[in-house]
Design brief:
Helix content: 25-40%
Strand order of the largest sheet: 3-2-1-4-5
Order of helices and strands: EHEHEHEHEHH
Radius of gyration: 15 Å
Oligomer: single chain
Number of helices: 6
CATH superfamily: HAD superfamily/HAD-like
Number of domains: 1
Largest sheet: 5 strands, parallel
CATH architecture: 3-Layer(aba) Sandwich
Number of strands: 5
């Protein structure tokens, strides 16, 4: 049993690369999109429960000149074809040194993702695979669950508010309570 005042989020925002799909660095090729096996079923479960879904993704390859916005859009479109419709997509095209407010660990994309459907960050959860995802959620006032991958640093796992072994575990924590 969770806390008495605990309730499921009204929306779940997912990191894209390393969380929903296998990370292909600076991927501009829709043909390389490879969703994690659980992703489609997990998203269907959330949608059936009336929980909105979204993606918040840093794509610094745009700022670095390694891919174009249209290539990112094509990859995102392929992800949507494979995993179903997302309520919101937020993408930061900036590099780490650009000083923007959208690039995770900054909270800008989470605030924007909440504003469109009129949600408060406190009603939203973020699932990601690195510390920047957790920091962005915390800065925005959203809940967060880390799903570690081989690139996740031990310190990021130790600092995460909630940790799950996989996407199914992360969503179970959010729907059923800690």
């Amino acid at each position: 049993m969770g806390h008495v005042d605990w309730k499921p989020p009204r929306a779940v925002l997912f990191d894209r690369d390393g969380t929903l799909v296998r990370d292909v660095p600076y991927n501009g090729n829709p043909g390389l999109v490879d969703p994690f096996p659980q992703a489609a079923g997990i998203l269907r479960k959330l949608r059936r429960a009336g929980i909105r879904t979204g993606v918040v993704t840093n794509q610094s390859g745009v700022a670095r000149g390694l891919l174009t916005r249209s290539q990112v859009a094509a990859v995102n479109s392929r992800i949507q074809d494979l995993l179903g419709p997302f309520d919101v997509w937020e993408m930061c095209p900036h590099g780490p040194g650009d000083g923007c407010t959208c690039r995770k660990p900054q909270p800008g994309m989470i605030h924007s993702a909440c504003a469109r459907p009129g949600l408060r960050p406190a009603d939203v959860a973020v699932i990601g695979d690195i510390g920047a995802d957790m920091a962005a959620a915390e800065a925005a006032g959203a809940r967060a669950v880390l799903v570690p991958t081989p690139v996740t640093l031990p310190a990021e796992t130790a600092a995460a508010p909630l940790v799950a072994r996989d996407l199914a575990g992360a969503v179970a924590l959010l729907l059923e309570g800690p």
